[in-house]
Amino acid sequence: MTHDGEGPTGLFDELMAEVTGTTGQFDHRAHLHLTWLAIRRVGMPAAVRVVSDGIQQAALHAGAPRKYHATVSRAWVELVAHHATARAAADFEGFIDAHPVLLDKRLLTRFYRATTLAGSPARTHWVEPDLEPFPWDRGRPHERGTGVLL
């Protein structure tokens, strides 16, 4: 798994250009697409760094450092990776068609309380889900389970 960019932000910039093309729009679907590409190119653990560092640097460059959210960034990479490994797809359209639940921007609220995500600890570093474990963590004890399945 290699890439041409230098470091995580170099790869992020490459992927951002590939995903946004001439429109320059980076909506939720584009974020998922970039994340999916990063996972395919460097694997999930490295993709967490590529996506997180890239978004953090983009937010700093835009003069909006508070737009970066460590837990949200990592959680989305983990969710996309889980679905990407569960059922491989040749292209992003096939992937998203097979996993439309990922298009729901509120998906993280199945796993996290709003107050948790709004808190400073979650903004600055990784915080585990506090409502329901992620699908790959179902065997671990959590304070409260809602039976949410993906």
Characterize the structure shown.
The chain is mainly alpha-helical. It has a domain at 7-105. The protein contains seven helices and no strands. It has helices at residues 7-20, 28-42, 44-61, 70-86, 92-98, 114-118, 120-124. Helix 1 crosses helix 2 (28-42) and helix 1 crosses helix 3. The longest helix is centred in the middle third of the chain and has 18 residues, at 44-61. The chain is globular. The chain starts with 6 loop residues before the first helix and ends in a 26-residue tail after the last helix. 25% of the residues are buried. The model is unreliable at 142-149 (pLDDT under 50).
Secondary-structure content class: mainly alpha
Distance between the termini: 28 Å
Mean pLDDT: 87
The SSE order reads: HHHHHHH
Number of strands: 0
- Our count of helices gives 7
Oligomerization:
single chain
Overall shape: globular
Largest sheet: none
Low-confidence stretches: 142-149
**How much strand?**
under 5%
Gyration radius (Cα, Å) is 15 Å
Percent helix among the residues? 40-55%
